[in-house]
Amino acid sequence: MSVHQPSFTLGVEEEYLLVDRETCDLSAAPESLIEECAKELKEQVSPEFLQCQIEVGTRVCKTVAEAGADLAHLRKQIARIAGNHGLAPLAVSCHPFADWHKQHFTDKQRYRELERDLGGVARRMLICGMHVHVGIDDDEARIDLMAQFPYFLPHLLALSTSSPYWKGDDTGLNAYRLTVFDNLPRTGLPPRFSSWSEYQRSVQIIIDSGLIEDCTKIWWDLRPSARFSTLESRICDISPRLDDTLAIVALTQSIMHMLWRLRAKNQRWRIYDRFLIGENRWRAQRYGVSNGLIDYARGEVVPFAELLDELIDMVREDAQALGCWDEVQSARRIASEGTSADRQRSVHARAIAGGASAKEAQKQVVRSLIGEFTEGLDNHLKSAVVEAG
Fold first, then answer.
1. Whole-number Å distance between alpha carbons of 160 and 374
2. Which of 15, 71, 181, 209 qualifies as a FRET site for 241, CA 20 to 30 Å off?
3. 30 touches 98 (CB < 8 A)
């Protein structure tokens, strides 16, 4: 009997910060900017929780290359439109020196309700993330893969880390964003459910209690999407460079495919306790790729680059089947060169060594992030034209 194969289609959401090009500080998006973006990009762009944020989402894409071309187009247009208003977008999870006390909410019912329900926790939400949807239209397969995939969440987080600073201070963490986000309810590693019906029953209790109106207010690191037949990875910081984003997207899609391939052969990935996965989640949050994660089978911390090589070899068959082998292999570059968090610290250190003040060094970090936002976009747009031709 043949086994139904999911589509493994992709959808990627990115949240950006808007900064003043001169001061490098955050700036609320003028209404005219939002209107211009909506006119140009239609439903692919929307305001976010804070007025200094804007969110984009790809269309449903069949391949990583297609998602890359769509994101390149979105980034290029957002940068152009923001530039017309003296602003620039950043694809970074925390602004290096902005103060959350000084930001204002977007006047939208959903966000007003969040502020009401979450109080002071919501007011600190000056953070941005990247979400990857992978199309899996069988509900039981989705819930089964949701139990197995968390093992790999720390690996993806480590590669994405872009939030070392908070209010001008180096936090010592590579992904400070999660310390802010984890203060919200219904966040962190997902619970384990034995079936789709068990998941639905559990969620329905919270809905029936009047605490949330639907599943969109469940913010686990990995969740079944409330709007699409997808499994959505939400753990990652947003990457300033699009090439890094696509490496993470390709790994996410390939791991999902690998887990499904095992399931089709009546096999599965070993499910480890949340306590153990949580320890690796913390190590990824703290160190990014510069320190190792626990290899549970060996019972020891193994260098990240070694673990990544093993993971890439493991999903080779899947990445080749999905057409994203090049993007998957490019994750090795992140492991060897460092993540955005490492680059931000390097920019800051060079500025200080060159005689810059602490404030000017922070602005240098922002300027480097502005440059990385559009880095390599034309290559992805040209590749899309060639492929279409």
1. 17
2. 181
3. no
Block mean pLDDT (10 aa), the chain, length 389: 82 96 93 92 84 93 97 97 96 93 64 70 85 96 96 98 97 96 91 95 92 86 91 98 98 98 94 95 98 95 97 98 98 98 98 96 98 94 62
Q: Name which CATH class applies to 10-373.
A: alpha beta
CB atoms within 10 A of CB 115: 15
pLDDT of amino acid 107 = 59
Closest CA to 50 of 117, 109, 123: 123
Q: What is the DSSP string of 109-162?
A: HHHHHHHHHHTHHHHT----BEEEEEE---HHHHHHHHHHGGGGHHHHHHHH--
Q: Are the C-beta atoms of residues 58 and 71 closer than 8 Å to each other?
A: yes
CA distance 105 to 64: 33
Question: What does the buried/exposed string (b/e) look like for 315-333 if buried means 16 or more CB atoms within 10 Å of the residue's CB?
Answer: beebbeebebbebbebbee
Radius of gyration of the chain (CA): 20
Inter-residue contact 162 to 248 (CB < 8 Å): no
Three-state SS at 166? strand
Q: Are 16 and 90 in contact (CB under 8 A)?
A: yes
Tokens of 190: 């997902």
Q: Which residue has the tokens 């495919």?
A: 257
User: What pLDDT, on a 0 to 100 scale, did the predictor assign at position 80?
Assistant: 96
d(CA 200, CA 265): 27
pLDDT value at residue 215: 81
- In 10 A of CB 313, how many CB atoms? 9
Note the pLDDT of residue 293.
98
Reduced to 3 DSSP states, what percent helix, strand and coil does the chain have, rounded to the nearest 5?
50, 15, 35
Domain boundaries, the chain: 10-373
CA proximity to 345, closest of 181, 163, 88: 163
Take residue 155 and report the two structure tokens written for it.
């690996």
Beta partners for residue 300, in sequence order? 295
Residue 348: half-sphere exposure toward Cβ, Cα within 13 Å = 18
